[in-house]
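Table S2 (text version). Query chain:
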Amino acid sequence: MAIFAKTGVGRVAFPIFPEEREEMRRMIRVTILCLICFASSAHAQTGLRFRISFPPSSSAQPLDGRLLLLLSNNDKSEPRFQITEDLNTQQVFGVDVDGWRPNEWTTIDASAFGYPRRSLADVPAGTYWVQAVLHKYETFHRADGHTVKLPMDRGEGQKWNRAPGNLYSTPVKMTIDPRADRVIEIKLDRVMPPIEPPKDTKFIKHVRIQSQLLTKFWGRPMYIGAAVLLPAGFDEHPEARYPLIVFHDHFTPTFDGFRETPPDPDLKPEYSERFRIEGYNRIVQEYAYQFYKDWTSPDFPRFIIVKIQHANPYYDDSYAVNSANLGPYGDAINYELIPYIEKRFRGIGQGWARFTYGGSTGGWEALATQIFYPEMYNGCFAACPDPIDFRAYTTVNIYEDENAYYMPSYWKRILRPGKRNYLNQIVATVEDMNHMELALGTHGRSGGQWDIWQAVFSPVGPDGYPKPIWDKLTGKIDHEVAQYWREHYDLGYILRRDWAKLGPKLVGKIHIYVGEMDNYFLNNAVYLVEDFLKQTKDPYYAGEVDYEPRAEHCWNGDHTRPNAISRLRYNQMYVPKILERIEKTAPPGADLSSWRY
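Corresponding C-alpha cell output:
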C-alpha cells in the first residue's frame, strides 16, 4: 500500500508499512465518524424542530417512555388514532425519554426515526394537525435478573393512543415547512383518563386473579382474568356441571359479540372500510343480539365460554404460551385461571369437556394450546391462524431467507409484501409494518404485531429485551434466533418432530380454516402444515383443514356467508361441532346429562 503525492516532477509514492496500515484505517474511521456526528449535530441545530415538555400538573415525577410526534393532513379524528399499516396512515416520529422531568424540553428533529417518512426533513411542506403523546414506561425487576422498562397495560389492552395515564397534547392545525429554521413548542397538558371496568350481567361475569407464576417472573403483582359467558339456566340448575370452551381472541374488556337487547334504533350508520359495507356497525349489533337469542333458545347446548384477558407489557395478549420474555402465561392460564373458573362456575373440569377456538391471534393460540397441552383439551378450531409454520412467516422463510424485507435477487431490490386486499393488491410491505413499529417503540416495545411475535418466540437478549429475529431497520435475519424459534414455537415443525408422541393425543382434535386470499398471507403456513397432517399415519390426524377461495382474513370455515358475517358467528359455528365431539369421545360414566336441560 502507498500514498501518492503530487510534486513538481510528477507523483511520488510514499510506502505505508503493514504496521502503519491499521493505525491509518483507525484514524480514517474516527475522522469519518467525527464528520458524521458534526453533520448530525449541525443539522439538529437548524431546520424544523419541535420542543416538547409537560407541566407538573400532568406529572410531578420524572417519566420514562416513548415520546411521539404525530402529523395528520385531516381532522377526521385525532392524529393519535390515525397511525396504521394501511395506505391511509398518517405520520409519526418517535424518541425514547428516560427520567424526563416536568418543564424540561425534549426535541424531535430530523434525526428522529419516523413512519412512513423516515425523517422530519422528508415531510412535504403543508398544513397539518400536530399532536404529541408520551407512552409511559414502568420499571420491572424480573426474576431472571434483568431490569427492563416497558409499558404496563392499564386496562385498555396495550393501546398507546388511549392508555390511561399517558400524556398528550390537544391537536393544533399549523403550516410547517421542514426546510425552515423554526422551533415549534408543544406542551403535553392532558392526561388520558381511566377506563371504566365493565359490570357483570346475568350472563356475563368478569373474573380477575393474581397469578403467582407471573408475579414471581415479573417481580411485582401480575393479574390475569376472563370474561365468562354463562349458559341459560345457570342459576336455575345448581346441580348442572358444564363443558368449558376457551374462545381465544385479542383483548376485550367484556364478552363482546353478545347483546341482550335489540340493536340501537338511533345508531348512526358507519361505513366499514375493511368490508366495504355501509352501516356495518348495525350489522354487528344485529348478530350480537342474534347470538343472545340462540344462546338462550331451548335447543342450544349449555356450555361455558371464556374469553381470556392476558394483556401484558408487550401486547394485548400473551399468545397463551410460556415465553422467556413474557413469562409462564401458558401455565398461568391453564393451571391457575381455568381451574379457578371451573371451580367457581361449576365446570366439569376434565379434558374431554374442554375445547378451544379462535381466529387470527386466537387461531394460533387455539392450535398452540392444543399442541402444548394436548390432554387438557378435546379439540381446537383454529381460524386464520397467525403463522403456524415459520417457513412461511407470512412471506418470509426465517430459516433460508437472508433478509425479511427484500426478496433474494442479485440485481433487483424487490420488497416483500406484508398486507394485501381482496384483489391481491399490496397495501403494505413487511418493511413498512416493521418500520411503523420501530417508530412507535424500540426494543420491541411498540405493542405491535411483529414485536409481540418476537417477544413471545425469541430468547432474552443481553439487554433483557427480546433478542431480535431480524434487524428492525434493515431486515437482516439472525438465523441463530430463528433456530430458537423453530425448536420452541414453530407449530408445524413441532408436529413433525414430535408426532410419534403427540399424534395419539391429537387424533380428531385439529381443525384449521383459512381464506386463500388472507390479507396477511397466513394461508401459506397452513398449506405447509396440511401437507404434513394429511400424510400422517400411526396415527392419522383425523381432523380437518379447509379453505375458501378469495376469502380474506379471517375466514373461519363458513362456506355459506361472506367474511363480514361469518366472523360474527364463531360461537354458533363451532358449538355444534363441539357437541358432536363430546358425544363421540366422552369416557364411560361421563356427565352427559346434567347440562342438557
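Notes on Table S2: Confidence is low (pLDDT under 50) at residues 1-26, 28-44. The radius of gyration is 27 Å.
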